[in-house]
Structures are given as structure tokens and as C-alpha cells.
Backbone:
């Protein structure tokens, strides 16, 4: 983990300029005759602002200065920049059916010259961290500052995706269909919780599986602040409310409680 003196910073006015450039780019993605399209664009715009808030709160919990928080703001603002063109072109947020949205974010940031006012060293950290937010895990060979900002971004992203998951029925697209009124957790998903492992995308088959997939992200949290928020916001209990009558939840609750208790004992 980086020492506080090693955190990166950019002038606050720079982050403000990038924010207004972000807003004008994203506000261009609206269709007067397509409410479904607009809802998907608004969802990602709100998610971006949510990740900015979460990332800055995390930064504050680490004692960051205003300039250091401005750096974090820029990183969070741009992390999902590819989502708008992705939905516009392909009609889905599923990378497997379209393109890697993190690579799109880096390409579009460069095309729009959003980071022209900050140093190459800083923009390289931002681009690498954006690419790493969309990987199953942060690569072991990532330089310390890239690893730090990748982890910070991943935690902030998870906190806001939990909010989105609770507010909408969404996975790859906003769901409007009815779901089955009962559900049995597949044993291979229970095994992931018992092994304290994140569920892989390839392991899930249904919308309900996707709720547990997102719950299992607990095992990839990197900061004390985020785990505290996971507990305080009762993410487990709230996500369970998205499920119908379900069998197989007890071993999941036990695994989560044990994991959180262990983390608290180590801290
Ligand atoms: Fe993303």
C-alpha cells in the first residue's frame, strides 16, 4: 500500500474542467424518441457520479488532500467512459457481446484529449488503473501506484454497483421481464462463498445468480473503509431482498460473517 506522501495529485481546476468535458460528451447520448436508450445512458452517468463520490470518500478516509482527491475524481470520472459508446453501438453493457469497455474508455479519453492538461506520468497511471478495473484481479506485476489506484477504483466501483443493483433490475441491460418466484442457489456458487472466492462471470446462468455474483465481490475488497461500508449498508441483507423464496442462503451468510469477522480481527 502506498504511503500518504506518494499519493498523486492534480490541480482542482483541472478535475473541474475534465468533469465539464465529461458532462458535455455524455449528455450527447440521448434520443428524443427512445426512453429505454436514455435510461441506460442515465444509469451509467449516475453510476459514474456515484463512483466519484465513493472514490473520494475512500480517499478522504485515507487522509488525502484536495489535489489528491482531484486525481481520484478524474480516475473515477473516466473509468466507464466507454459505456456510452458501447451501449450506443451494441445495445448492451456485456463486454463479451461487444467490446472491452475499459479499453474503449482509454481510447475515447485519448480521442477527446481529456487528459491533455495533466502529466504523462499521471495519465499513464489513470489509463492503467482504468484497464485494471475491468479484470478479474489486479495483475501481480502492476507498479505500486497503478496497483493502489486500481484497487481504490475497484472498491469504489463495487460500492456503487451494489447501489445500482438494489435500485434497478439490471445486468448487461435493464431487465423488464418477470423472474421465477423461487430459486435454489447452485452448489458451485455456494462453494465460492465457502472458499472466500469471487464468483466468475462464466459460472452464472440466471439473473438471481448475478445477484450472488455481485455479493461475492466482498472477497475482492481492498480497503478497510469499503468493508466497513459493506457491513454498515447491510449489503448482504439488502441484496437478499432482491431474491425470491430461496434455498441455500444459510451457508452463504455463515461464510460472509466468518470472513468479515476475520478481517475485523486482523485490522
Ligand atoms: Fe466498468
Residues:
Amino acid at each position: 500500500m502506498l504511503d500518504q506522501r506518494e499519493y498523486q495529485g492534480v490541480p482542482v481546476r483541472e478535475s473541474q474542467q475534465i468533469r465539464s468535458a465529461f458532462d458535455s460528451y455524455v449528455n450527447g447520448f440521448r434520443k428524443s424518441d427512445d426512453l429505454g436508450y436514455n435510461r441506460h445512458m442515465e444509469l451509467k452517468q449516475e453510476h459514474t457520479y456515484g463512483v466519484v463520490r465513493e472514490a473520494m470518500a475512500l480517499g478522504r478516509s485515507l487522509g488525502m488532500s484536495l489535489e489528491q482527491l482531484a486525481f481520484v475524481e478524474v480516475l473515477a470520472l473516466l473509468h466507464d467512459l466507454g459505456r456510452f459508446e458501447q451501449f450506443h453501438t451494441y445495445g448492451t453493457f456485456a463486454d463479451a457481446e461487444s467490446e472491452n469497455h475499459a479499453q474503449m474508455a482509454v481510447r475515447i479519453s485519448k480521442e477527446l484529449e481529456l487528459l491533455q492538461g495533466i502529466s504523462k506520468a499521471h495519465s499513464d497511471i489513470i489509463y492503467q488503473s482504468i484497464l485494471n478495473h475491468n479484470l478479474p484481479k489486479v495483475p501481480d506485476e502492476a507498479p505500486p501506484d497503478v496497483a493502489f489506484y486500481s484497487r481504490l477504483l475497484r472498491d469504489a466501483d463495487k460500492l456503487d454497483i451494489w447501489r445500482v443493483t438494489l435500485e434497478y433490475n439490471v445486468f448487461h441491460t435493464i431487465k423488464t421481464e418477470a423472474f421465477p418466484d423461487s430459486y435454489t442457489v447452485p452448489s458451485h456458487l455456494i462453494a465460492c462463498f465457502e472458499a472466500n472466492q469471487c464468483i466468475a462471470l462464466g459460472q452464472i446462468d440466471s439473473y438471481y445468480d448475478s445477484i450472488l455474483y455481485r455479493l461475492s465481490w466482498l472477497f475482492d475488497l481492498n480497503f478497510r473503509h469499503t468493508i466497513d461500508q459493506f457491513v454498515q449498508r447491510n449489503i448482504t441483507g439488502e441484496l437478499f431482498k432482491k431474491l425470491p423464496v430461496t434455498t441455500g442462503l444459510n451457508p452463504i451468510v455463515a461464510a460472509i460473517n466468518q470472513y468479515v469477522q476475520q478481517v475485523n480481527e486482523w485490522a
Summary: The mean pLDDT is 95. Residues 178-266 form one domain. The longest strand covers residues 182-184. The first helix runs from residue 12 to 27.
